[in-house]
């Protein structure tokens, strides 16, 4: 797989690899490889994200790493706030975020998802920022839904 090989090629001995276990309220991050230090437990809040970013920067300095790769499983919608913070701080690219959004969207499209997103926006790092992130995912979900419907119509017409 070209994408997988391309991702592997980015990793060098000077790359700090961080994995994040996503949860509803509190995430856990670990530095991989030689298992540097203790895990970082941080809340799904603006203050928690700053704690996480500070932890990454401290590890990067202590271990003399030049590059950081952060990986996580896009669980429900709880990962979105963290993903946007990582993107703002240049740990994610637009393409990486888009790939994660596609995975999340392919799992479910429906009214329950919309209700969950609205609730998450109210409880997130800020009503305005959370609402904007929820709107972004909603737009993506709706685009995905339209694409699925178009593919179904095309398949029906081909038969």
What does it look like?
The protein has about 160 residues and is of the alpha+beta class. About 60% of the residues lie in helices and about 15% in strands. The chain has helices at about 1-10, 45-60, 80-90, 95-105, 110-125, 125-159; strands at about 15-20, 25-30, 40-45, 65-70. It has a four-stranded mixed beta sheet with strand order 3-2-1-4, covered by helices on one side. It is globular, with a radius of gyration of 18 Å. It starts with a helix and ends with a helix.
Short summary:
The chain has six helices and four strands.
Q: How would you summarize the topology of this molecule?
A:
Elements: H1 2-9, E1 15-21, E2 26-32, E3 40-43, H2 46-62, E4 67-72, H3 80-88, H4 94-107, H5 111-123, H6 127-158
Parallel strand pairs: 1-4
Antiparallel strand pairs: 1-2, 2-3
